[in-house]
Amino acid sequence: MASFKDHLGRPVVAVTGMGVVTSLGAGKTENWAALTSGKSGIHAVTRFPVDHLKTTIAGTVDFLPGSGEGMSALTYELAATAGQEAVAQAEIGSDFSGPLFLASPPIELSWADRLAMYRSSSKGAGYQRLFEAARSGHGKAIFEETQFGTVADRLAVLFGTRGLPITTSTACASGATAIQLGVEAIRRGESQRALAIGADGSASAESMIRFSLLSALSMQNDRPERASKPFSRDRDGFVLAEGGAALVLESLESAVARGAEVLGIMRGCGEKADDFHRTRSKPDGSPAIAAVKLALADAGMSEDEIDYVNAHGTSTPENDKMEHLSLSTVFGPRIKSVPVSSNKSMIGHTLSAAGAVEAVFSLMTMREGVIPPTINYDQPDPAIDLDVVPNVKREADVKSVLSNSFGFGGQNACLVMAREPV
Least enclosed by CB within 10 Å: which of 36, 91, 306, 308? Predict the structure, then answer.
C-alpha cells in the first residue's frame, strides 16, 4: 500500500478532480480528443475590431455566454465552468470544505467602461471627469466589476469553499502558482483539500497592442492554425489565448478514506524569481534552471525519473531558447531522449491559466498513455536539440511529468506530477 507521507514526512497530495476549457472546447473529453488529434483552436479574431493591428489571430473562447461581456465576466465563466467539471468528478458535493486559490489576470477597466464613466460627466480633464463620475455613484457596478478579488469571491460562493479566497497574478506562472499554494496548504495540515483554478479571459485589442509593442506576438495571420510553432526555426512569437482549468487537490489519506478515484499525485513544486528584466529572461537561464531543480528536490526525485516534459514552449524566439538551456543544463545529455511537447502549439498561450491548463493535460498524458504533439514542427531549430514530439501524438508509458511555467516579469514555477503514489 502506498504511504500517505512523502519523503519529507508531509501529506501526499493527490488530484481527485480536473476540469478544463480552452479554444478547443469545454471539458476534458472534447479538449483531449482535439489535442491528441493535432487540432488547433487558434483562429481569426471576430469578437473585437482588429483593424490596423499587426496581429489579428488568437485562441479566444467565443462559445461561452460571457465572451461578449468583458474580461471579468469571461474569466469568471471560464473558472466556474472548469471548476464545476473538476468538483463534479471529485464527487465532493456543494460544500467544498477547503480553500480556493485562483490565478487570474490583473483587473482593469475596459475601454467601454472607461468611456461610459467619462460620458457621465462633461467638465474638466479626463481624470477629473473620472473622479466626478465615481463620486456621483454612477460607477458602482463598474467599481464592483473591476475589484481584483471579485471573481474569487463569486467562485467561493459558487463552490462553498472555506476562508478568504486567494487570488494570485504572477503572469504566465499564475496557474502553476495557484496549484502550488493549494499543495502547500494541504502539506501544512491547514486543510484536507483545496481547489486550485487558473482562468484568463483577457484577450482584447488593448492586450494585443501591448504584447505587439513588446514584439512578442506572432504576425503569421494568413494561416492562424500554423502560427504557433514552439521550438521551430521559423517561430516568430506566441499567440494570445484564453482558457481555464481547475484541480481538486486532496490529501491522499482523505481521498483513500472516502473512496475517491486518484487521478494523479502532485509530487513537487519549485519557484524562482528572475530580477533581470521586466519581460526578458536572464540570459544564462539560472532562475529557470533553479525552478526546475527546486521542483525535483521538492518531489524527492532525480532528473532521471522524469518521463516527459510539458514545456512552457511559447513559440517566442528567446523563451524557447532559454527553456532549452534550462532543460539541457538540468538533464544533461539525457534531455535528447526525454519526450517534450508544447500544448501552446494548439491552444495558444492562455497566460494566467497556462500553468493550470497544462497541469490538467500533463495528468491526462499519464493516465491515457498518450503524449500530445507539438504541431507545426516542420523546421526544427538546430540550436534546440530536444526530442520534440512532432505533429502527431505518441503513445508512451509516462509515469512522471515535469511541467514548466516561465512568465513575464521573472515569475518561474515548475510542477512535478506522478501517475501513482510511491
Answer: 91
Residue 9 exposed, middle or buried by CB count within 10 Å (0-12, 13-18, 19+): exposed
Portion of the chain with pLDDT greater than 90, in percent: 78
Catalytic residue among 269, 324, 349, 414: 349
Residue 80 in contact with residue 158, Cβ under 8 Å? Answer: yes
pLDDT for residue 1: 57
Q: Give the largest Cα separation in the chain, rounded.
A: 73
Give yes or no: 324 in active site: no
In contact, 315 and 240? CB cutoff 8 Å: no
Tell me what pLDDT residue 246 has. 98
Mean pLDDT of 15-35: 98
According to DSSP H, which parts of 270-340 are helical? 286-299, 317-331
Q: How many residues does the chain have?
A: 422
Average pLDDT for 311-336: 95
C-beta separation of 99 from 166 below 8 A = yes
The model's pLDDT over 54-113, given as tens digits with 9 standing for 90+, comes to 999 999 999 998 877 778 889 999 999 999 999 999 998 777 889 999 999 987 666 666
* Segments making up each domain of the chain, as ranges: 13-108+146-418, 111-145
For residues 419 and 264, is the Cβ–Cβ distance under 8 A?
Answer: yes
Task: Determine the Cα–Cα distance for residues 37 and 391; give it in Å rounded to an integer.
Answer: 9
Residue type, 131: F
Using alpha carbons, list the distances in angstroms from residue 140 to 113, 135, 148: 11, 10, 15
Average pLDDT over the chain, rounded to whole?
A: 92
- pLDDT score, position 68: 73
SS3 state at 402: strand
Of 361, 352, 346, 405, which is closest to residue 71 (Cα–Cα)?
352
| 138 has catalytic annotation | no
- pTM equals 0.93
**Which among 43, 52, 138, 172 is annotated as catalytic?**
172
What CATH code would you report for 13-108+146-418? 3.40.47.10
